Amino acid sequence: MQRLLGAGADGTAATVTAREPFYRVGGNMTFNYRCCLQFNALYMFGHDMNLLPIDANGNLIALQNLTTSVPVGFIRSTPATFSGGFVDAEWLAYPWMYVMIRYDAVNSTSDRINGLQTNPSFTGAPFNAPFASTRNRITPGVQFLIHANIKASFEYQFRPSQAVVIATNPLTGLPVALNPFHTNTAVAGLEWVY
Q: How far, in Å, CA of 32 to CA of 40, rounded?
């Protein structure tokens, strides 16, 4: 359910509510090999009706302009679908050391298209402007149990390509991302329980 501050038919302030049916279907599995090796996998498919706000004249309101236009309802747009999941392997090398590697992938054309929006650029997405519809990430990591209540961990993520340069394709007139780059990340942590 999506709610926006808008107006009713008579022009008075009201909350406009979209009751959008959406679907999520998927499955997961876990396989343990002996005492020290575990494999996990998950796959999910999602489908949304992609409702967009409209003003009193029936014109679409860009999500970036919700503060300047008053929505009175919603209309259906091109349905948004995505699919993706992950596989990982976890190995207990020693009773005090755990090693893992994970591969994530999400295929979402609508995320890529939203990332290509300009004037102003779309913000709030986990990736600035995805360079491709499929975003994949590889994450190796290690954890050390230093003491019964102290754990140290380190992960490095090889992240998908992003683009900050958006241009217009002269053949199609549609926006296109240029000059991809990766924003890989490293995370170190120290946790304790008392």
A: 9
